[in-house]
Write a structure and sequence with these properties.
This protein is of the alpha/beta class. The protein contains 19 helices and eleven strands. Helix 5 crosses helix 10. Bound molecules: pyridoxal-5'-phosphate.
Length: 442
């Protein structure tokens, strides 16, 4: 890998000066492309999302059996959509910025089984793998009732196989809990950022947890290497997995249904803005892909990252994708937003999605805590720090005059706009831990 000449890179991309100074920045990509134009890097389409959705449907009877908390939604792992008007007022007052349109929160923070957005991609990846193994052995067909997967005979079958993953916490939680419940032997390689309670919870589920003193990139690399020597081991590769990506993408059609039920329109006169916290990129990238497929060109997605871990902004802005890490330009990748503590973005996601994402911005840890407190006070909703990254989005967008002019998003259209903040985690944070978060909110 070629060494990086920082002064030269800054000359070419002046925004990097602010990025390196850890200022909060926003960048709106001038090279976005309408959906109708085929993109070179997206080998995936509507049929792939449909296949993922149908697979999840087949597993619904099993999930209802194995995780009774999914029964009210008939075995679907889906989250609520709620209005947060008091938080909207808070944001406007605190930023002295008018936010035109309606503010909603998508509560993936409270998804069943693992309490984060990873309950979409992570659990789907495990289920898909289990299905593939069971079908290959002639034990299962698509038309069977998958409830039988809860039987001892299936658990015993799956116990011959191992699943491994590298994680900052939440992906490990999702994959660990799901794999262990099916009967797989499962190993989670946890980065230094991972919270102790997540490791404890996994061990209580019988998951092997290996801890690293380094960051996410190292945990993934070690996990990948360990799995490479074991043919019975399936490594779920967060940096490159199309399966994870498609599991997240199913969110698009599900959200469309929720919007239809509430009579919320999305079209040229009713734009939808979605603010997604980004770590390695698979979660927000997959969701954004699904949203684009479900809603078309009038959904506008923005990615949000901590000022200390702006890997996707850096990769897309410089066009270097996964060949550059924030550490290469002197940024430390140390943030309270543990779910977003990723120094190098997924190249697969960056290349697939860059022309379909309207913008990227960064937020300080201090702002994450402040908004964590504000959301708790104003709406009684409690999230983990990572999950607040999207909350500044409506402010960033409202101030982005040049971008809105370029897309002809004038006041008349903005009056009909929906702002959707994707809350990505926090539903399982222990009370004591949440009290510490709240105490830092000031
Ligand atoms: C993992 C995670 C994200 C981001 O997902 P990536 O796939 O890493 O980009 C956002 N928020 C929380 C709480 C997460 O755990």
């Amino acid at each position: 890998m070629t060494a990086i000449n920082i002064p030269e890179l800054i000359r070419q991309y002046p925004l990097l000066r602010q990025l390196i100074a850890l200022d909060e920045v926003a960048w709106f990509n001038p090279a976005i492309t309408p959906l109708a134009e085929a993109l070179p890097h997206v080998g995936l389409g509507a049929a792939d999302i449909r296949a993922a959705s149908e697979c999840l449907q087949r597993f619904a009877p099993y999930l209802m059996q194995a995780f009774p908390e999914t029964a009210p939604a008939n075995g679907m792992i889906e989250s609520a959509l709620v209005d947060i008007p008091r938080m909207q007022l808070q944001l406007e007052q605190e930023s002295a910025t008018r936010i035109t349109g309606r503010l909603l929160l998508k509560q993936d923070s409270h998804l069943p089984i693992s309490g984060s957005i990873k309950a979409r991609g992570g659990i789907y990846a495990v289920l898909k793998h289990a299905e593939t193994r069971a079908m290959a052995a002639g034990l299962l067909t698509e038309t069977d009732n998958y409830r039988q997967l809860a039987d001892a005979s299936f658990r015993s079958f799956f116990s011959q196989y191992r699943i491994a993953v590298g994680s900052t916490g939440n992906l490990g939680l999702s994959i660990g809990i799901m794999s262990a419940r099916l009967g797989f032997a499962v190993t989670v390689h946890m980065s230094a950022d991972a919270r102790q309670w997540k490791k404890d919870k996994l061990r209580a589920h019988g998951v092997q947890v290996i801890e690293y003193e380094q960051d996410y990139g190292v945990a993934v690399a070690q996990g990948r290497q360990a799995a490479a020597h074991d043919p019975a081991c399936f490594f779920i590769d967060d940096e490159n997995s199309e399966t994870l990506f498609l599991g997240y993408a199913v969110a698009g059609e599900r959200l469309k249904r929720q919007f239809d039920e509430r009579g919320i329109a999305v079209d040229a006169q009713h734009p939808l803005f979605v603010y997604l916290p980004c770590g390695v990129g698979g979660g927000p990238g997959g969701v954004a892909f699904g949203l684009k497929m479900a809603f078309g060109d009038h959904v506008h997605c923005l990615f949000a990252e901590p000022t200390h871990s702006p890997c996707m902004l850096l990769g897309v802005h410089t066009g270097r994708h996964d060949s550059i890490a924030v550490q290469d330009i002197g940024i430390d990748n140390i943030t309270a937003a543990d779910g977003l503590a990723v120094g190098r973005a997924s190249g697969f996601v960056g290349r697939a999605m860059e022309r379909r994402l309207d913008g990227y911005y960064t937020v300080s840890d201090q702002r994450l805590y402040q908004q964590l407190g504000a959301l708790s006070r104003s709406e009684g909703i409690q999230l983990e720090p990572s999950a607040l990254a999207g909350m500044q989005g409506p402010v960033v967008l409202s101030r982005a005059h040049a971008y809105r002019q370029r897309l002809q998003l004038d006041e008349t259209r903005m009056k009909n706009a929906t702002h959707l903040v994707w809350a990505t985690g926090g539903g399982m944070v222990p009370e004591q831990e949440m009290a510490v978060y709240l105490s830092k909110a000031g």
